[in-house]
Design brief:
The complex is a heterodimer of chains A (220) and B (297). Chain A is an alpha+beta fold and 220 residues long. Chain A has 2 domains: 6-142, D-3-phosphoglycerate dehydrogenase, domain 3 (60s Ribosomal Protein L30, Chain: A, 2-Layer Sandwich); 148-218, 2-Layer Sandwich (Alpha-Beta Plaits). Chain A is 31% helix and 35% strand. Chain A has helices spanning 6-9, 19-36, 49-58, 60-68, 81-87, 159-169, 200-208, and strands spanning 13-15, 42-48, 91-96, 105-113, 116-126, 129-135, 138-142, 148-154, 174-181, 187-194, 212-218. Chain A has a 6-stranded mixed β-sheet with strand order 3-2-4-5-6-7. In chain A, strands 9-10-8-11 form a 4-stranded antiparallel β-sheet, with helices on both faces. The two termini of chain A are 20 Å apart. Chain B has helices at residues 8-17, 22-34, 38-61, 73-82, 90-107, 123-135, 139-159, 164-167, 169-187, 192-204, 222-241, 250-263, 280-290; one strand at 111-113. Chain B is globular and about 60 Å long. Classes of the chains: A alpha+beta (220), B mainly alpha (297). Chains A and B meet through helix 1, strand 1, helix 2 and helix 3 of A and helix 2, helix 3, helix 5, strand 1 and helix 7 of B. Strand 1 of chain A pairs antiparallel with strand 1 (111-113) of chain B, so a sheet runs across the interface. Chain A: Residues 148-220 form the ACT domain. Chain A: Pathway: Carbohydrate biosynthesis; gluconeogenesis. Chain A: Keywords: 4Fe-4S, Gluconeogenesis, Iron, Iron-sulfur, Lyase, Metal-binding.
């Protein structure tokens, strides 16, 4: 079943006008920020398909910026997110693209600061629900509806078991897990959906495991 | 996933067998699926109700959308009703104006509760806050109104669609109106079976409705579609309460809606390429707002 909760039907509470083009866009921005792990200093937002054609009228641009500033779908500050971005010294650029993506409502967020860069691609699938379809070139499928961990690691034997062990020690149950790699023996990514939010100290422990390069999380 | 009901027939049978309200079955399922307590679930829905109430109040004071296409019609309707010469009756027009108010707030980037989507967010609260003045429900009954709506929406979302891009406006405002009709029937003291009749009668009359938003914006004709969704829901609820039944069972009406949505031309499913969006005026509006006309196949 696609819809499991009554609050998928009566909800979300959100700033209008469109659950897909505004609320979904805000969620993509917020998940991107979560994955980056801190406030980026600069961001380039590439919009595709229906997002590119109608973003002005739907406030898709301000909604994504609002999400990057950690605003929820119902935060009134979304409307004036550009002003808040200036205050927060977040430099941004909105780039409507003509290329076609698989899904009509796609946004690609490239962000960074002096310590690093990250790219996140998200799609808005309707009713405010979203999926993250790509992170730093890795194809994946992440709904943002459950807490999740993203672990970038070297493609070596034992990495996956070590991370799973660490979660088990903290009694954290894995609901769904996907692993992917760009090329055998090089960089790989684990996407782990879990049943509860994890504390930062768990993230730190995972990052100390050999061959782990980066750990980020999405809370819910 | 172990749910209590997969379709309207199971929902009604369960409510009848256990002598419970539809809203109660929805609450019990939510407890089961989410693992949260009744109090937590009730509290969250109560917050949604509060948001709906605030949106209606704001819309009745008058708002304008960013594009300037919509706003102010809820006020016009309330002023007209105050003169006392309305033909279709003040309860019905009150529901219509409050549905319009909600969607005008939505178009103006105000805060709303998607029910089941943002574009169809006016129908359920619009009817609720109009019927409230006649039935004098308790706060709990008002929250239950949303659970009853949610139960029917849940079935439609999983067995058909609540997305205009997937099923046209029949899937959005059509579903919202059916959900509202069922909830009105329960609040007015009708049986679970009558709730299902109210839903079926409503949706039957919204089958085939296309999603053709001018300039791709959730404004024209969305605001007025919410108005008529509210009116449709109230009349169908009255018919169901009068004992009128749908010859085609509720689940089959939902199935028909799904198949109609699948066979609908993509130009008529939220792409702004057909219907009202493709009229000369619709295209001129798009060009004025975005500087270029939307592509029409």
């Amino acid at each position: 079943m696609k819809f499991t909760s009554v609050f998928d039907i009566i909800g979300p509470v959100m700033i209008g006008p469109s659950s897909s083009h505004t609320a979904g866009a805000a969620r993509i921005g917020r998940v991107a920020r979560d994955l980056f792990g801190r406030s980026p200093k600069w961001v380039k937002i590439h919009l595709y398909g229906s997002f590119a054609e109608t973003y002005k009228g739907h406030g898709t641009d301000v909604a994504i910026i609002g999400g990057l500033l950690d605003f929820d779908t119902f935060d009134e500050r979304i409307k004036t997110a550009f002003d808040h971005a200036k205050k927060a010294e977040l430099a941004f650029e909105i780039i409507p693209e003509t290329a076609n993506k698989e899904h009509p409502n796609t946004a690609r967020i490239v962000m960074g600061d002096e310590a690093g860069e990250m790219s996140v691609e998200g799609i808005s699938i309707g009713g405010g629900k979203i999926e993250i379809s790509e992170v730093n070139g890795f194809k994946l499928r992440l709904t943002g509806g459950m807490p999740a961990l993203l672990v970038v690691h070297d493609d070596r034997a034992g990495c996956i078991a070590n991370v799973a062990n660490c979660l088990a020690m903290h009694s954290i149950n894995i609901g769904h897990m996907e692993v992917s790699r760009i090329e055998r023996g090089l960089t790989a990514l684990m996407v782990i959906e879990i049943d509860q939010n994890v504390e930062d100290r768990v993230l730190q422990q995972i990052s100390l495991i050999p061959n782990i390069t980066k750990v980020s999380k999405i809370n819910n | 996933m172990d749910v209590l009901f997969h379709n309207v027939r199971e929902l009604v049978e369960l409510a009848e067998k256990e002598n419970k309200l539809i809203s109660e079955i929805m609450i019990e399922q939510e407890i089961k699926i989410s693992g949260r307590t009744r109090e937590e679930i009730f509290e969250q829905m109560d917050k949604n109700l509060e948001i709906m109430e605030q949106a209606v109040e704001r819309g009745l004071k008058g708002v304008q959308s960013v594009s300037g296409l919509t706003g102010g019609d809820a006020v016009l309707l309330q002023n007209y009703m105050a003169k006392g010469n309305s033909l279709s009756g003040n309860l019905l027009l009150d529901a219509v104006s409050k549905a319009v108010a909600t969607n005008e707030v939505n178009a103006a980037m105000g805060t709303i509760c998607a029910t089941p989507t943002a574009g169809s967010a006016g129908v359920v609260p619009g009817t609720l806050f109009a019927v409230k003045n006649k039935l004098n429900p308790t706060r709990e009954q008002m929250v239950r109104y949303l659970f009853t709506s949610g139960a029917f929406g849940f079935v439609v979302a999983n067995n058909a669609s609540i997305s205009g891009a997937a099923g046209g406006c029949q899937a959005e405002v059509g579903s919202a109106a059916g959900m509202a009709a069922a909830a009105i029937v329960e609040m007015a003291g009708g049986t679970p079976a009558q709730c299902a009749e109210g839903f079926a009668i409503t949706l039957k009359n919204m089958l085939g409705l296309v999603c053709d938003p001018v300039a791709g914006l959730v404004e024209v004709p969305c605001v007025k579609r919410n108005a008529m969704g509210a009116a449709n829901a109230l009349v169908a609820a009255d018919m169901a309460l009068a004992g009128i039944t749908s010859r085609i069972p509720c689940d089959e009406v939902i199935g028909a809606m799904f198949r109609i949505g699948q066979s609908m031309n993509p130009n008529l499913k939220e792409t702004a390429r057909g219907g009202l969006a493709a009229t000369p005026t619709g295209r001129a509006i798009a060009e004025k707002i975005f500087g270029s006309a939307l592509k029409v196949d």
